[in-house]
Amino acid sequence: MTERIAYVERPRRSGCLWGCLIVLALVLAPLLFAWGYSTWFLASGFRESPLMRTIVEMTQRDGLAQRVLGAPLTVTGLEGNAFSYMPGMGTRNEYRLRVEGPKGAGTLDVGSSSQGAKPKIESMILTGPDGQRYDLLTATPLPGDPARNPPLGDTI
Questions:
Q1: Are 69 and 104 in contact (CB under 8 A)?
Q2: By Cβ atoms counted within 10 A, which residue in 43, 74, 75, 134 is the most buried?
Q3: CATH topology for 49-148?
Q4: At residue 71, what are phi and psi to the nearest 5 degrees?
Q5: What does the pLDDT look like over 15-56, one tens digit per residue?
């Protein structure tokens, strides 16, 4: 008499597949979070930052900016943000904002730093619709073509 061996096929469980997917999710989760946060910050989150609110308010009240772009000024978005941190030295932020007024649109390049909890605005450079650049902290046009630097008179 011959014995017959019967093989019973067990259902596959995909254990390896789920394990690989979980590891992949754990690796990609921080990257997806960073991408989502930066997208949100560039789109509208920058308005929540106390430093950015101060910059927007200073720009809207600045006489030189009103003379270049017209009043009222609106900050329509954030084009870029560069952030750096060095232990013991503090942080450094650079922003590029889109600014619009009745006379046209321009950009505002802002540099700030902080040591400890208090940030300090170091530069605010406005580029007008004609390409001329103005330093809003000193209320002066930056050197360039003399034909593009008309006298500004009283800007306050």
A1: yes
A2: 134
A3: Nuclear Transport Factor 2; Chain: A, (3.10.450)
A4: -115, 140
A5: 788 888 899 999 999 888 888 877 776 666 666 777 788 888
Nearest to 134 by CA among 124, 126, 144: 126
Tell me how far apart the alpha carbons of residues 33 and 64 are, in angstroms, rounded to a whole number: 40
100: number of CA atoms within 13 Å, CB side? 3
- Say how many C-beta atoms besides its own lie within 10 A of residue 69's C-beta: 24
Residue type, 85: Y
The full set of domain ranges for the chain reads: 13-43, 49-148
pLDDT in tens, 68-123: 888 888 888 778 777 787 777 788 888 888 889 888 899 989 898 887 778 888 88
Decide: 113 and 90 in contact? Cβ < 8 Å: yes
